[in-house]
Every structure is written in C-alpha cells, then in structure tokens.
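#dry-run=false #mode=assembly
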Amino acid sequence: MTYLLPSIRLWLITFAVCVIGYATIVLGFAQAVTPYRANGSIIAIDGQAVGSELVAQNFTSERYFWPRPSAVDYDGMGAGGSNLSPTSTDLADRAAGTVSRYGAGDDSPLPADLVAASGGGLDPHISLAGALYQADRVAAARGLAAEQVRQLVRGTAHAPGGMFAPAPIVNVLNLNLALDRLAP
Amino acid sequence: MMEAIFAIMLVVGGAALLSWPLGQYMAGLFSGRFARADSLFTRAVGGAPDQGWKQYAIALLAFNALMFVFVFALLTTQHALPLNPDGQSAASLDLVFNTAASFTTNTNLQHYSGESTWSYLAQLGGLMWLQFVSAATGIAALAALARGIGGQASMGNFFLDLQRATFGVLLPLAIVVACVLALSGVPMTLAGAAQVTTLEGAAQTIARGPAAAFVAIKQLGTNGGGFFGPNSTHPLENPDFWSNGFSMIALILIPMACVWMFGRIIGRMKHAGVIFGVMLAFLLLKIGGAVAFEAAPTQAFASLPVMQDVGNLEGKELRLGAATGPLWAVLTTSTSNGSVGAMHDSLNPLTGLMPMVGMWLNATFGGVGVGMINMFLYIVVAVFIAGMMVGRTPEYLGHRIEGNEMRLAVLALFSHAFLILGGTALFAATAWGQGALNNVGAHGFSEILYEFSSAGANNGSGFEGLGDATLPWNIATGLVMLIARFLPIIAPLAIVGSLMAKTRSAESAGTLSVEGGTFGTVLVITILIFGALTFFPAAALGPIAEHVTLMG
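#status=ok
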C-alpha cells in the first residue's frame, strides 16, 4: 500500500497533464495557427482533395513527372521502405526494372534518386536533375516546348536546407499541378 | 562533404551548447530549488518521505508495473474505446505484450505500423503517456544515484522525482518541440485518414492524426517510437530539413544534459567534463565512420546506367539532406532513442555497423538518465581495474569499490552482452529467425543481431525488413527488453546503496584522479574491452562479412 497508492495517484496526475492537457494544448495551437498543415497539408482543387503536398502519389502517365520508386506502392496507410541491403540482388533487379521504364542507357544515365526507393515510400520530392531528366518526355506528351517545361522545373526547385543541404529538389505534386495549369 | 560537416556541427554543437544550461537547471530542480513546485508534487502523491535504495527501487518498480498493466489493458480494448476514427481492430495478445513492454522500458521497438494498428486513444493515452513517464523514470533513477554517490544521506523520493522529471523537464520541452513540429507540417488532428483522388484519378488514403504531440516526446525522451510506421522518414512525421535538424537536437539534448546534471549534483564538474568528453569522442568517431561509409554509392546499381554522385540513396529522403541518414542513425543509437531518419536495413554494411556499436556500448550519452547510469557501471569497473593495476584499494569519489560492488556492476554489464548474443544465437540457429529474414546471407544475420541489440539496449530501431511481428519474436524481445531495462537500473542503485553504508574516505594523492586524461583513457579502454570487444565476433559474421564479400 505504501507504494500502490502513490503509484495510482501518480498515474492519474501524469495522465491528466501529459495526455489530456498536453495534447489539447498542441492540438489547439496547431489547429488555430496552421490548420492546413495540422490536417495533413491536403491540397484541394475546386473543393476536391487531390493529395497531400507532403506525401508522394503515383504518376504513370507520360504527361506527368514521376516520383521516386516506392516499396509500398505509395500506400498512405502503410508507408515503408524496401529494407533491402545495398548489396542485394533483389534490389539490383528492381533497379533494372526502373531503368528500363525510363529507357535509360549508358549515354543517358538516370539520377540515383529516381532509382532508389525512399525510406517511407512517400518521398514527395525528386532531385532537380531527376526532374530535368524527365522534362523532354513530359514536353513531348503535352506538345510543349522542352525549354518551357525546363523553365517550370527550375522555377519549382529549391534547396531544402540552405547551405546545410544545397542540392536542389522539386516537389512532384506541386510541379505536376503547375504543369496542368500551364497546359491543361 | 562540407555541407555534411556543417550539418553535423549544427546538430551536435547546438545540442552540446544547449545541454549546459539545461543540465544546470535540472540539477537545481532535483536539489529542491523549486520549493513550491515540490510541495505541490508532494501533496499530489500524499507525502514524499526519504527513501533508501531498496525503497526507491521498489517504488520505481511498482509504478512501472502499473504503467505496464494499464497500457496492456488499454491496448487490448482499443477497438471498443473512443477516438478510433479509422476503425482499428483488436491486436494480438503477443503484440500487445511486446508493445506494452517496449514502451514501458523506454525502448519503443515496434512490431507494427502505427497508422494501421492503433487507435488515436491507444497512441496518445497509452504509448505517448509511457513516452513521458518511462523517460522520467530514467531521469529519476539518475538523480537518486547521483545523490547517493555524491554523499547525501538520502536517495530522495521516487514519486517526487518522477514528477520533477515529467513536469519540470519533459513537458515544457515537449510543448515547445511539438509546436515547432506542427508549424513545419507534422499533422495534429483528431480527424481520421484523408481520402483524396490523385491527379491521375486514383484513390489514395493518407493516414494522419495527432502526430506532432507524439513525435515531440518521442524525440526528447529517447523513446523513438514513431507515430507512423517508417518513423521520421515519413514526410508527415518529418516534413523538411529544419524539422529534421530540430528533431535531432531534441534527440540528443537531454542525454547530454544528464551528464552535467550528474556532475552538479555530485559537485564534481571537472569529472563530468571528462565523462562528457569520452562520450563525445565515441559519438564523433561513429558519426565520422557512418558518414564516410555511407558516401559509397549503392552497390546494387553499380552495373546499371545510374548516376551515383550522392552516396547510397536507398531508404533515404531527399528533403533531409545528404548526411542525415548516417548522422541520425548514429545519434539515435548512441542514445537509446531508436527513431530513424533513414532505413537502417538499407545502409551500407559498415554504416550499419555504427548503430550496432552504439547499442552495444549504450553509454555514449545513452538513454535519458540511464545512459549516465550505464556509464557509471563502466566507471566502477574502470576504477577497479586501475586500482588493481597500481596495487591500491580502488576508490571512486572516496567510496571503496570492493567485491560486492564489482559483482553487481559486472552482472549488469554482462547481462547486456548475454541477452543480445544469446538471443541472436538462438534465433539465428532456428526457424524463428531464419524464416523472418528479408535479406540473405550475412545481411540476414545482421537483421537478427540488430533486433536483439536493439531490444537489449532498449533502443527500438531495427533492420525493419525482419518479419518480427510473430509470436516468438514478440515474446523473446519483450522479455529481453524488460530484463535489460530494470536490471541495469536496480543494480547500480544497489551498488550505491552498498557504498553509502560504508565510511567514505577523503581522496588523497594516492587516489586515481577522476578529473584528468589518465582517467579518461582508462575509461575509454574499459568501454572498448567490455563493450566493443565482446561483440566483435558477431560483427565479423554480419556487417564485416557482408562488406568484405560483396562491396567493391
């Protein structure tokens, strides 16, 4: 009893403060200050939710830029990586499939991020090089000038962490939305 | 490469700077500097009398038993309780046992994906609650140990200390971190998953939920259990470069501050400085190794037309920057956090060895409170060996270290290796382990070794390709986590209790000084022999074998 009663009181107090109190404070703050982000950064076009700005969705049409490979097929309810070793032959086979999908050859090697699956399988970005690599295909499918598409890509690219992470990246969904606005 | 060095300096340097004032504040907090808060805490539990080491340990175990029982009950009944917008069904009993053990022990090994397993009530009321109180348990135990070894007459009161750690340290920091994460894009909502129609007309369901609150305490309390399955590689759990850097600082901050807190309570800041230096040296060594090994490109792409000028990208997120994967991997395993910023299973073989080394040592900052307690065990052994070598009675801070203390210290240290290597041997030799592998050969062995290292170090990260959501894995790692948590907390408290019962002598010129380079060197060697050498044969069979046979 010396230990049980204080333990129970401790349980009730910490639960009330750290679960109910704390979650309410953070919930109230997030929903009041940044409701778009607090609800998953969902982009709506004409009232129709088309995706999350932060979550990759699959693109297979020639008319769109394609995201990085996903080990979970872009499943927003079951995210995950391939968990394959870099020395795995399964990984080499998967990569060969990606290479042939893009029709890459020794004269036009693919940027690595288009071949490597991300950790969560939902990486919303590709590298600037990975986007430029696809620009000709997208331009041809849409009947646009390749340079116009490249301009759009460069305009969408940003360095994720300034001087700490300068390699530019492109948000695929934002880029494809801009593409649809440019040439519906 | 330069940007990687900048990012490392930003995170490690930033955390080290912040740890100094935090350690000072924590030492004051646990020395009764905030009398009004203390009297409130005391009344809340109906009195807080001084406790000896046994009473303190029993109180700690009693409350932790209650934590386990409550969360076990909550997880088994989640489908009948509110706050379940995505209609999660009942989980298997062995998974519930594993999960309750995992979060009670501050491990957060996850044999499930949060978004498809637990209701919001289970996540917040069960798992997030444990992320607070299990972390506070470790900090409280360190405070008690420091008081005893520092020469105070009492170890304090567990129920008071737990509230000090929870409300005075973890809660205020968690509110700040959670709000910053929410601003960066981590969701905080009670609404269920979002249904969207993609630009190509397909349906996509996107899990969300009260993640920001969860992720903040996950990082701060060296918990590591993610709201979503792939942890901080999930873009909704870690939306950009800055949330990532901030999360890493939150990860290592309190473990660093614990060293300063220890130093202030025992009144020996120079000694704490030596310990901090030893821990930091190991940490930087592992970071350097991991970043360098991970700069090697993905071996599987070598014969394909792939431009590989950015290192190994499999299992990594572009927005988090080049060095993040290996840096986070080392930080999260040097502490006993276990959250991940890249998939450890897909790290290059020798990069994957660095997190394992971190878990084997388990004291290069280590878990909140318990990392410093583990280091205390190494110190006891180091002092004993040094004393024997020069033919003097081994002393630590004027306490004579004798057979009884050594037996307890070696028991605690040896149990760590026994649980990891014994478990690995059993599962590697049977279908329990062999049937669960996602990779073949040496890497498959690494998956088993990593899982038991993670359970034994109360870490929680994994080579996640391992199919560990099975009855044998749930039971075995559940038991390992429980033993590996409480034995290395109770034994040091018993050591200190035994030392407190003896007369303390004054330190003389003949005593090995614990404030200089000689002591630091002895400590490093002890850690290497006890912590690293024990595991070398296992490392040779796993990551090292994979590297020499398949890389290059």
